[in-house]
Amino acid sequence: MINTQNIIDLEQTYVVQTYIRPKLVFEHGEGVWLYDTEGKQYLDAGSGIAVNALGHRHDVIVNAIRENAEGLLHVSNLYHTAPHALLARDLCEASFADRVFFCNSGTEANEGTLKFARKYAREQGYTDKTGVVAFTGSFHGRTMGALACTATEKYRQPFEPLMGDVTFAEFNDLDCAHQTITDHTCAVIVEPVQGEGGVTPAAPEFLAGLRAICNEVGALLIFDEVQCGLGRAGTLWGYQGYDVTPDMMTLAKSLAGGLPMGAVLVTQAAAAVMQPGDHASTFAGGPLIASVARAVFNHINQPHFLADVQAKSIYLATRLNQLVAQTPLLTGVRGKGLMWGLISTIPAAEIVAEARHHGLVILVAGEKVVRLLPPLVITQQELDLLVERLQATLESVG
């Protein structure tokens, strides 16, 4: 049997300390449940930060891994393989996109869009059209370009100077966007529902306005759906809840059900400027991972599955609003689909830490927002348990 303290000691000794982990070791999972090495059960309402959309040990994922594990694992992107071509077709046929670029994470996907956008402007003859506009509250990743588009100062400051020519406008403020997006702007990047920044949905008129401004100045509109895409917001794609179509969209997190994969979905106009050698990735779209991603995607992309997510969204929103009305520690709730934020009067980290004592895994989204990202397969009964454990947590904290 694994000794919990031994594992913690090894992590403390040998792993670079970029995370503050709680003093428990998860050992296995089943459905929406996680189990630690001491045998304690936790309702997982974090989904590995929106990755485990189908929960733990789902048959679709397990079977896809088993079926493909004895085939090709890797040949690199120098060669054709069937899984990545089939997955690209499935993603394009279910979205606005004409083509897909595969990568390994959300930050890589966002980094790729910046290269696409600058190359696009250059190919139009605008060598000085290099500006990128992002928004307050944004989170787009940790690499130098993606980090340059991430608004949180504590993430940015230790690594400055970052990629230049990035300007931040106020999220959900169309007047500010009008003033910030200019003829110098080659790309505007925005999350339809901000995740790390507080689980804040974009206003419909805001995204529609961004589309109009981008059309006016000749900038590409990028939707970062790394967290809110693939059913998380209640529709297959976050943009479908707004009836606004981007030029590029980034995916990752739940795309391969827990295996590392990212993707950039693009229109033909954006794709056409990229030539062989302009961008690359050794591991991206590998046969095993692409096979698993295709199984996950085609399971989520079913009308009955998405309708079920929407029904559970309505139910959970009702229960959470009732909870807010019952406790002075919460002042509001916001979100979409199965992506919700509870606005707290105390540091969210205190609530998250206490929740583990009640067998509940939840997340923070800023200093005073508790983030809920349960697996999309969670049942109504399990949603009731989630709210009950949240209530017990708040009573203990209070």
Detailed description of the structure:
The chain has 398 residues and is an alpha/beta fold. The protein has two domains: 4-58 and 303-397, Aspartate Aminotransferase, domain 1; 71-300, Aspartate Aminotransferase, domain 2 (3-Layer(aba) Sandwich), CATH 3.40.640. It contains 14 helices and 17 strands. The chain has helices at 4-14, 47-50, 59-69, 82-93, 106-123, 144-148, 153-156, 174-180, 204-217, 268-271, 287-300, 303-326, 348-357, 380-397; strands at residues 26-30, 33-36, 41-44, 99-103, 131-135, 166-169, 185-190, 193-194, 200-201, 220-224, 248-251, 262-266, 330-336, 339-344, 360-361, 363-364, 369-372. Strands 4-12-11-10-7-5-6 form a seven-stranded mixed sheet, sandwiched between helices. 49% of the residues are buried. The mean pLDDT is 97.
